[in-house]
Amino acid sequence: NPADKKNGGAVNMGLSLTPKSIFFKGIEFGKINISSRYKKRGENFYSIDRTKEVEYNRKWDLGSSESPGREELELNTVFSPRSYVSLDAGVGRFRTGESVKSDRNSMQFNLSHASLPKIFYLRESITSSRGSNSYDGGWVRERGNVVYNIGPFKPVFKFERENKKETYGEFSDSGFKFSDISGRLEYKGGSS
């Protein structure tokens, strides 16, 4: 029946646990935030508006594949032993039936204290497959920076690295790999 093809369901749920502080035997161990998100879109669900965030396909390494039905599950944990440092770890799973699969994990570190170098580091790893065209892929992305104030000087170091490998069946391998490292020295002179 053609009318059945125009009706479908979708679910978007999330849960976040954010206690103020974690204590054990009177000792504070910092803060933790645990969040999860579950999305499911039926094959016959068609949205009248955008339902995917920008760079959605890059996040899951989906290429240009599009499927009407999909299911996502993500879990993220942020641990902050002190107000100026945090460690963020996440895992995710994407499925459209048996044909398209993607699993991702990420780790992020932040250090931001007035008397220490500011450090940021992010690593993401994605494995994906698309059974319809015998595609298997792996993608590792890393980026980070270090900034330190030394009197009027501020050295800044940045790096970004990606390594993507793709296999289409038995005979075709492709991908790319790059590393970018840069730095600069900023000077903030005093007023006269």
Task: List descriptors.
single chain, 192 residues, mainly beta, ten-stranded antiparallel β-sheet, 10 strands, 3% helix, globular
What is the fold's blueprint, element by element?
Elements: E1 10-17, E2 22-24, E3 27-41, H1 56-60, E4 70-82, E5 85-96, E6 100-111, E7 118-130, E8 135-147, E9 153-168, E10 172-187
Antiparallel strand pairs: 1-3, 2-3, 3-4, 4-5, 5-6, 6-7, 7-8, 8-9, 9-10
**Number of helical runs?**
1
Mean pLDDT: 87
Q: Termini separation (Å)?
A: 81 Å
**Helix percentage range:** under 10%
In oligomeric terms, what are we looking at? single chain
Number of strands: 10
The major pleated sheet works out as:
10 strands, antiparallel
Rg calculated over all Cα atoms? 22 Å
Order of helices and strands: EEEHEEEEEEE
User: How much strand content do the residues show?
Assistant: over 45%
Poorly predicted runs are: none
Helix/sheet category? mainly beta
Shape: globular
Describe the 3D structure:
- 3% of the residues lie in helices and 63% in strands.
- The protein has 192 residues and is mainly beta.
- The termini are far apart.
- The model has no long low-confidence stretch (mean pLDDT 87).
Give a nutshell description of this structure.
This protein is mainly β. The protein has one helix spanning 56-60; strands spanning 10-17, 22-24, 27-41, 70-82, 85-96, 100-111, 118-130, 135-147, 153-168, 172-187. The relative contact order is 0.11.
